[in-house]
What we know:
By secondary structure, the protein is an all-alpha fold.
Amino acid sequence: MTLPQALIGFAAIVVVLTLVPGLDTAVVLRGALNHSRGYGLATVAGIFTGLIVWGAAAGVGATAVLAASSTAYRLLSLAGALYLAWMGAGMLLRSFSRGSRSRSAIGARAGAPQVGTAAGDASTATGAGAAAGGGAPLWRGWLTGLATDLLNPKAGVFYLATIPQFMAVGVPPLLMGVLLAAVHGLCCVVWMGALAVGAAWIAPRLESGAGAALERWTDRVTGGVLLGFGTKLALDARV
């Protein structure tokens, strides 16, 4: 198999996988909606980095340990399950606490004299915009994407099963693994990057009340997805 044939054949597989919504998609959308476009794109960059690491590991055969050792696979699965459950539970708790604060604030405004309404509305809108931006550092988004990818052992097993089938003649296995992972990563950058940009464009155009509700429900849905993936990983590790 020549290098162009290997890259095109692998791309045909990973394009389909990239378009199917999953854990990475949920994490990217949540970051873009609740923080900023830059945060969402930083999350995509973290996912790309994780794929490169898995590709290099598959190229040199390191991920064979996951397939050969049930103990190693279970340990990584449990670590990933705990991480996802921690993230998911944190998002759910924050979303419900924000909902309680919002209802309290609405009740307080309803009982207060309506003085300086325009200034108050402007102040509220400014505060809502600041909350939506979150001020979260971009490195945190990158780290979230990286950890989400690296702590998913199924990504390593997938690479172990597919990358050896696309080795090109005359190309070192390590380099080939990185090149194939880069193809997968570029697909993720194009698709998930577009999702992040679109989500970040939509978020500030919502009314303040709708934006706060969207933020809460984004956290709840993403938190539920993370808890679901974490539970599944933990159950798989027990088998």
